[in-house]
Structure formats: C-alpha cells, structure tokens
Write a structure and sequence with these properties.
There is one protein chain. This protein folds into three domains: 142 residues, Beta Polymerase, domain 2, CATH 3.30.460; 84 residues, no CATH class; 62 residues, no CATH class. Helix content is 54%, strand content 16%. Helix 8 crosses helix 9. By secondary structure, it is of the alpha+beta class. The protein has a five-stranded mixed sheet with strand order 3-4-2-1-5, sandwiched between helices. The mean pLDDT is 87.
C-alpha cells in the first residue's frame, strides 16, 4: 500500500461517538469556513474520555473566513496555530486552528519546525469533513507527515537499526526540538502503543521520503550514506527555533485560552510527574506566570 492509502484508511477509522459529535459541533461554530476536524493524541487510545483533555485540529479555508477581519486572523497567520478551549456534552478539549494551506505546508518537509509533522506522523482520525474535497485535502496533508519525520531523522540515524528503533529515535529528536513536558521515555511509549502500525508505515513512508533502504529480519538498512554533520546543524537549529516558538505560542495562547496557565500546569503534572501549583498572580498575569515557571521546570527536568 502507498502512504496515501494507509493514511486514508487510518483517518477513516471510527472514534468514540462523543468525540465525533464534539468535532461536528466545533466545525459548526465556524460555519462555511470549517473544512475538516482531526482528532489526535493519547485520547485516541482511551476507552473512557471523561476527565481527559481531547486534542483536535480544526482546518479552515482561510483565517479571514474563520475570524473575520479581527486580530485573531493576523495572529493565526503570523504564528500558527491559534489554540482555544472547547467543551461539549461533558467533555473538554483544546483545538488548534490552521488553514488548509498552512496545514499542508506545516505537515510536510517544507518547514523545519517539527510541531505539525511530528504529531501527524502518529495516528490521527478525521472526525469531521465538510465534503469529499476537504477529506482528500486532509489525507494529502497527513500523508506528508511520516515521510517528513523520517527524512529529517535520517542523518542522525545509524546505517542499520531495528524498525521500532527507527521511529523511537525519530520521535525522540522531535521531542527534543520543542519545550516538552513528556518524560524521556515518551518516544518509546508512542511506538510501543501500536508497534504494528509503525511497521506497516515504515516502507511506504521511506519510499515517499525518497530514502533507499532494505528491510530484512525486522531491521532496516539504508543504502546511501547521510551527512551527519549537516544533520546535527539542522537539528540544532530546529531545537533553537522550536523552543523559541513554543514560548511564543504559549504567550499567544494566554490571550486565546481562558485558564491556559492552569492547563499548562495540568499537562506538565500529567506527563512529567511534576507537582506544579499555580499562584493567583500567575493566573492574573499568565504570560509572566508561564515565563516565571520555566527556570524551575528546566532545573527539575519537567520540560526539556
């Protein structure tokens, strides 16, 4: 199967009906501007969604159609995505907004930033689509994510390694390129949650990424050498830019996300096993509050 066929089949897999209803309601808020809603993240693997924070990407035709002429359209265009909270039928979620054009670009090798292609190299579901064209556009965009991940990781990988390690090391590189709350074992747990899925995706993703290889006895051998020194420079740049973008997006989210600093603390506590408590002044001044947390979190290793 091609990577497009694998992605199309995966995106079409059913999800919890409550998540589907939530996605449809979310799309309804944006009217004709809404093109697709993608459901992703750890909640895909959960049987009970109560008390969890669901993750969605809302894909829109363009930002002006989604927001009108206000500052939100400019903010989304200049520093995508915008992130908002959402509640429906007792469930809570956050959703990120991208235009179809930005989603296609950010899910591909056209951008150094790992944020979108690293996430959509992992499983996701198309919980709602406006029409067949929107569905196909989403499939096409997501189909670039896994090839982008493996192509970016290749210079940092040995010439031969087990299939599971291929994905683990690739994801580990992306987690290090953002300020992340996850434990160091997070990359391995992502792959371990569905190793057969990643084995199915390996050859099609490598082929789509133009990476010549041979797969034998559960291991992959690359046929052409890679320039590791160039790869190290590129990943150093990704880490610098990625961490700066994370801080900028957190600052922006404090203006779009009521209670955003409390969500940040919840996420860090959940993923990193920390015990962060938010003070009243940090809720009043969330940008300064979030920045004030960073030195302590970095010292404790809660974010990296």
């Amino acid at each position: 199967m091609t990577i497009e066929q694998l992605v199309a089949a995966e995106l079409a897999e059913p999800v919890d009906p409550r998540a589907t209803a939530m996605a449809a309601t979310l799309a309804g808020r944006y009217g004709a501007a809404a093109r697709a809603v993608l459901f992703y993240g750890s909640c895909l693997r959960e049987a009970n969604l109560d008390g969890l924070m669901l993750d969605f990407y809302l894909i829109v035709s363009d930002y002006q159609a989604a927001y009108g002429r206000g500052w939100l359209a400019s903010a989304n265009r200049l520093l995508p995505p915008n992130v908002f909270p959402f509640e429906h039928d007792g469930l809570i979620a956050k959703y990120a907004v991208l235009s179809e054009a930005d989603f296609a670009r950010l899910a591909s090798s056209a951008t150094l930033n790992v944020s979108v292609w690293a996430r959509f190299a992992q499983p996701s579901r198309l919980a709602w689509a406006a029409d067949a064209a929107a569905r196909q556009s989403a499939i096409a965009a997501v189909s670039h994510a896994a090839p982008a991940l493996l192509s970016a990781a290749r210079p940092m990988l040995p010439a031969q390694l087990p299939l599971d390690r291929l994905w683990e090391e690739a994801f580990a590189l992306t987690y290090a390129a953002e300020l992340r709350a996850e434990r160091k074992t997070r990359a391995g747990s992502v792959v371990a949650a569905d190793p057969e899925r990643y084995r199915r995706f390996t050859a099609p993703a490598l082929f789509a990424g133009g990476l010549d290889h041979v797969i034998e006895d559960g291991a992959i051998r690359f046929l052409l050498p890679a320039d590791r020194r160039a790869g190290e420079r590129t990943w150093a740049r990704r880490r610098r830019e990625g961490k700066a973008l994370t801080i900028a997006r957190l600052a922006k989210a404090s203006t779009t996300y009521a209670g955003g600093i409390d969500y940040l603390a919840w996420k860090i506590n959940r993923h990193a096993g920390a015990a962060i408590e938010i003070k009243p002044w940090q809720r009043r001044w969330p940008i300064l509050g979030a920045i004030s947390l960073l030195p302590r979190l970095l010292m404790k290793g809660a974010v990296r």
